[in-house]
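ENTRY TYPE: paired fold submission
RECORD: A
CONTENT: sequence, then structure tokens
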Amino acid sequence: MTLESLINPLKAERQPWDMFFVGLVYSSIAVLLSLLIFDDGKSLALVFLTVLATVPIMYNTLKIEEKKDIKFDKESFLLKEHSKAITFFVLLFIGFLVSFTLWYIFLPSTLTHELFFSQQQAITRINKIVTTGFSSTDTFFLILMNNMRVLFFCLLFAFFYGAGAILILTWNASVIATAIGNFFRTQLENVVREVGSASLSAYFHIGTLSLMRYIFHAIPEIIAYFFGGLAGGIISVAVIRHDFRTKQFQNIVLDSSLLILLAIVFLIIAAFIEVFITPVLF
């Protein structure tokens, strides 16, 4: 496959920033194909096509990480090795996020509505939940429980489909991009209404503000989901290879359990930032 040949896990570990540009390319091609080919369901097609391009590197990475669990038993070393995969996957996610956001901002409103229709519906549902008069503490636990639910599905998809967690992560990238795009357009309209036009500096200021509003809590949240996806995927590969019949499978279970625990810690941090810090700053 042409897109698959762009990069491999070993190269990605050595040059993690390449994954950011890979994310830009994969998602942009998915956007263009969705617009050109599909009459209905463009918003889901762009997620599916992005995932389709990403599955090979995701699955090959899981196989490499599972081999490390079998070969090494020192947990601190394994976490250091896993962090390399997490780093380039987070950069891949940021590539998706930046790409989807730019397409959302610069496409005409009619195309944006078609391309991100399902994502808009998801944001509307979320807003209804968090604006029903709950206290900050209640909102914190509400968001945390929702994020824990997403983590559970990352584990589930990764276990049953190997690289399946990337589906949920790509969907989240498109939803966050839609939220950023909405905020950007709203702020830009306010500036134009007050001043009459928007300068280049205004575009830069609003763009930075829009990104910072969501990226602070999105990064630890996505790291958590990648930890969960990695844990479920490693166990999935071990089962496929019948490594569960070996003594090393205990190391795999221990390592995956630690990854899940770290994921929960990152989700707590993300929910705290989203509820108690982001509203103060933005």
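RECORD: B
CONTENT: sequence, then structure tokens
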Amino acid sequence: MTQHQGWHRLKARLLSELAELVRINPSDRPWQMPFAAALATGLPLLVGAYFDHMEYGLISSLGGLTFLYLPNTPLYHRMVSLMACGFGMAACYALGVISHFFPPAMMLALSFAAILVSMVCRFYNLGPPGSLFFIMAASIGAYSPGEVLDVPLKVGLLTMGSLLACLIAFFYSVYILRQRPPGPVLPLPRPTFDFVVFDSVVIGLFVGASLALAQVLQLEKAYWVPVSCLAVMQGMSLRAAWTKQLHRLAGTGIGLLVSLGLLMLPLNNWSISAVMIVLAFVIETAVVRHYGFAAIFITPMTILLAEASTLGHGSSAALIEARFYDTVLGCLVGFAGAACLHSPRFRELAGSRLRQLIPARPGR
């Protein structure tokens, strides 16, 4: 190969990557869905602002993310599915909050949650966002300060947020199903050992490893590391994981600048609530079209979701810098995990060992 041919191949590869990064996907998502999602996460914040307990509103707002698991199925099916997801959110958050009191066990708790939730999501063919928000709830809970006696209060607040999300989802569904016919309830795919068990164990181990690395590097409040790791590993192929990693890094980089600008404003409880509602609406409108663009707004929303109650008690620049390191570390570990997950040789070697520990059922 001549130098000229090599340059043309490199140029074609770079243009291909650029085209993939800027590609906008078509979407038929109605505007009412992002609006309802914004209400599910925003109303708890408004209530918290009214009673001057923003920390309570933020926890309930985290439960409001349950709305995003609403499937496009008949009313009876979507409500049962959503209530099950609300229970899962509360359980994962409770596990994370409890692990806060035993830092050495935090990695084990996150790994266990990621393995179990991934198995359940894959067995029941739960669509996007998959296990992401369950692990986000567990991760934010693990880094939430508080006393042991606060655990029931926190879990109750998140559960109330999930219940509010189910109520909003019911009224939204009654309206939207009059405008659009629901999709069919598809039969569950036949579960296989590789898809349900092996993949989930690998994902959980890498999520735990990302948190362990964050602890070794002494990253403060590294709740975003396992979330970034999981987000990248959820790609359906290594190519999808690579693209999602680039989207997340680029979007987060720009989003951190947006976050810094927001944190420099004189925000109060009411303005934080309004900003969160707007961010939620923009994210749910954009995420199905371009993940990188949505990540620009995901970054400030997650920072406010986890840190709004303590804003003003530290340096905004230090907070932004910490989130950047968290994202880079999580994406790197996540891409390494995706490379293992999509490597036939790794699957053959590790899968055979795992089968010896967890024998598969005959015919599976």
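NOTES ON RECORD B: Residues 111 and 208 are 5 Å apart (CA to CA). Residues 151-179 form the longest helix (29 residues).
STATUS: closed
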